[in-house]
Amino acid sequence: MINSNIFSLNTAMIGLVLVFALMFGLNSCAPAEEEIHLGYVLWDSEIASTHVVAAILEDELGYNVRLTSVDAGPMWTGLARGDFDAIVAAWLPATHEAYLEQTQDQVVDLGPNLDGAKIGWVVPQYVTVNSIDELNDYVDEFGGEVIGIDPGAGLMRASDRAVEEYDLNFNLVEGSDAAMTAALDRAYDREEWIIVAGWIPHWKFAAYDLKFLEDPLGVFGAAESIHTVVTPDLDEKAPEAFAFLNNFYWDAEDMGEVMIMVEDGVEPFDAARAWIADNRDKVEAWLP
Length: 288
Description:
The chain has about 290 residues and is α/β, with parallel strands linked by helices. The chain is about 50% helix and about 20% strand. It has two domains: about 150 residues, 3-Layer(aba) Sandwich (D-Maltodextrin-Binding Protein, domain 2), CATH 3.40.190.10; about 100 residues, 3-Layer(aba) Sandwich (D-Maltodextrin-Binding Protein, domain 2).
């Protein structure tokens, strides 16, 4: 009987240990049960930043992360509705100004995650035109077109204003980032004249010798920043994610390294993780 009682006691103790271990185990990985949903636009710059952020949230902080690519308008609307928890793709103060004005009571702007961004119209350096107000003298050379990106982008809204305010005899062609860079690549190889709606940071400035056309009327604004914007409840829902997103800040060179890897055929998450592995000091400074 003594041995039987000891066996029963040991069995009970083992059971309690397993229960406590399971409880504490579940608590220790609680963030993994929390999903962070990130929205982003399919610009190479935002593909790079969003995948770096997603990889850190998953690998370093243990969250489940879901990514959804949308146009700029639906990205902001989705964030305001709570469909997304955060974006790291808000171009301010000019490009996404209208979207922020519409949603500012439903979102929280955590400030810049990258400074020195710029939008405008871009041409190869071999093009002898230097300013938008010269373009009507060279309609035929450019084929009467400005090659744009997705129609919901703030850059396209500014481009529409540029056509109007400069009274240009040009058509603005809607498309995508990929279509724009493909058109640029074809023209550049043939040394043809082309205008594209462009921005920095972007890998094309490393791949080609390009310049922004001067904008005397200031339609495209001055230098901008890319901001992180989140839902108002994120700090309560996922405090570690909130703290990390609040700390996240890098520069155009960092972003460019990821963009070039992706352009060279590396999957975005693989490129993000490679950059993270090579920049542990920066990543550690972002973590809560």
